[in-house]
Amino acid sequence: MATGHEAAAPTASEYIVHHLGHFNTSGKPQQAIADFSLANLDTLFFSLLMGLFTVFLMWSVARKVTAGVPGRLQAALEIVIEWVDEQARSIVHGDRTFIAPLALTVFLWTWFMNALDFLPVDLAPMLWQAITGDSHAYMRIVPTADLNGPLGMSMGVLVLMIWYSFKIKGVGGFLHELVAAPFGDKLILYPMNLLLNLIEFAAKALSLGMRLFGNMYAGELIFMLIALLGGTVTWWGISMHLALGAVWAIFHILIITLQAFIFMMLTLVYIGQAHEAH
Predict the structure, then answer these.
(1) Is 207 a catalytic residue?
(2) Over the stretch 19-38, which tens digit does the pLDDT of each residue have?
(3) Catalytic: 154?
(4) Annotated active-site residue in 154, 165, 193, 215
(5) What is the pLDDT of residues 103-142, one digit of tens each?
(6) 3-class SS string, the chain
(7) Where are the domains of the chain?
(8) Is-catalytic flag, 215?
């Protein structure tokens, strides 16, 4: 016998569409992959929050560092620092005073943003709805699953690529390289060389951001699909929800770590390429 509640329950597509909506300045849900308007306030907030948490974590460990037997957190962070420094040393041939700490920050910041995916899918929207009193309030907490976030990070890497190109090669040297490589230093080839180099810079920045976004967006969708199983309120649905959720969460640890590693490594590779001539 119908109770009337069934009609109010969202369908699977409505559930997913709602959870893909962003809290933004327009007051309306933004469900496009990217709007490029800096309007997604949830992405901005959680990106900043995880950035501050990363800085606080490193500062708190550095403040308590000891020459004796280190604590677990200090030991873990020292392992990560040595590993990142080794990667930077093998890729960037030059002054790494800024680059190695940058790589460490990029890795940890990206990892913590990715790790927000482990929070229950409905937790943030429900809390936000309770705070605002709006049963249709939108809230997404994984900044890297919003293309605006990874593309913003990749634009920062692009700026560093250009900065180091000017710094290492000089203004004249870099500008000459843009028009003289890869086909040769001939006047007739200058337009083609310049076009290819501009495309290369744009492709590096876009692929860097889209790679991270694509993997995290797909992972977020899978968590939503698993959450739908629990919404069936049947023994098999809840059982599959718990079993698949646990399996996917364990596997997702590898995914978020791998994506943070790839983003960090490509950042080092692109900055390292700026130190070398064609």
Answers:
(1) yes
(2) 788 887 665 555 555 555 55
(3) no
(4) 215
(5) 999 999 999 999 999 988 888 888 888 887 776 778 888 9
(6) CCCCHHHHCCCHHHHHHHHCCECECCCCCECCCCCCCCCEHHHHHHHHHHHHHHHHHHHHHHHCCCCCCCCHHHHHHHHHHHHHHHHHHHHCCCCCCCHHHHHHHHHHHHHHHHHHHHCCCCHHHHHHHHHHCCCCCCCCCCHHHCCHHHHHHHHHHHHHHHHHHHHHHHHHHHHHHHHHCCCCCCHHHHHHHHHHHHHHHHHHHHHHHHHHHHHHHHHHHHHHHHHHHHCCCCHHHHHHHHHHHHHHHHHHHHHHHHHHHHHHHHHHHHHHHHCCCC
(7) 13-274
(8) yes
